[in-house]
Amino acid sequence: SRETEPIEVQLGSQFDDSAATYEGYVVANGRLRPLPVGSTLDRRTGTFKWQPGPGFLGTYQLVFLRSSEAGLKTRIPVDLTIGPKHGGDDNRLFDIGARARRNKER
User: Fold this and answer.
1) Given its phi and psi angles, is residue 44 left (phi above 0), alpha (psi -120 to 50 degrees) or beta?
2) What are the pLDDT digits (tens) for 56-71?
3) Partners of 26 in beta bridges
4) DSSP string, 10-43
5) What is the DSSP letter of 83?
């Protein structure tokens, strides 16, 4: 994605149980920190939205936790790369680890 462009990531699906909840963090120096300034996470639907401001360049390692009604926690890693507003060919870079790297935790 590019700085100042909106980002939306849908973590849930139409097949999720309706009682599932989500929480999210930035991984910085091996520690979990709050999500980026200006971002939102709908804890019920799993929709993450962020419009990075000028200067928010680089790769952001995010991790989301989905808690099912039965108490099962699923870790969903998401890497976002924010490039400069002008330049380069990449207009929307993010890797949702939901498919390839889901790790179920108890």
Assistant:
1) alpha
2) 899 999 999 999 989 9
3) 33, 62
4) E---TTS-TT-EEEEEEEETTEEEPPPTT-EEET
5) B
User: pLDDT averaged over the chain?
Assistant: 82
Q: What per-residue string of b and e applies to 53-86 under the rule 16 or more CB within 10 Å gives b?
A: eeebeeebebbbbbeeeeeeebebbbebebbeee
Digit-coded pLDDT (tens) for 21-48:
999 999 999 999 999 999 999 999 999 9
Within a 13 Å sphere around the CA of 18, how many CA atoms are in the beta-carbon half? 0
Give the Cα-Cα-Cα angle 57, 90, 80 (nearest 5 degrees): 45
pLDDT of residue 100: 33
64 in Cβ contact with 76 (< 8 Å): yes
Task: Round to whole Å and give the CA distance between 46 and 7.
Answer: 14
